[in-house]
Amino acid sequence: MAFEDVCKQNLIAEGEVVPCKVGDKEIVIMWADGGEPKAYEARCPHEGVSLGQGDFNGRILYCIAHGWVFDGRCGKSLQPAGWQMKEYPMRVQNGIVQVDITG
């Protein structure tokens, strides 16, 4: 695995989504209320629109382009069903969030 530094741990918080770049790939760190922070590709599976600008209420992420709806705890699409945000391995070491986009 090739973990890369993304941001400081204190820049992410429960109930928030944080857009980031790893190399030339846009990702989001999404931390749903009562869950764990997770890293996802920031492309909506519908038409590739950035989810980094999506509307997140702490539990649900809404794509601003066409209204697709994702569960913030697991990246699974709720509307329409049957889709999934691509998740990347993530860890925190020495106060730095690291993500592996090669996995």
UniProtKB/TrEMBL annotation:
GO molecular function: any one? metal ion binding
Domain Rieske as annotated: residue spans: 4-99
Q: Pfam families attached here?
A: Rieske
Per UniProt, the keywords (alphabetical) are:
2Fe-2S, Iron, Iron-sulfur, Metal-binding, Oxidoreductase
Q: From the Swiss-Prot or TrEMBL record, give the protein name.
A: Rieske 2Fe-2S family protein
- What is the organism of origin for this protein? Methylocaldum marinum
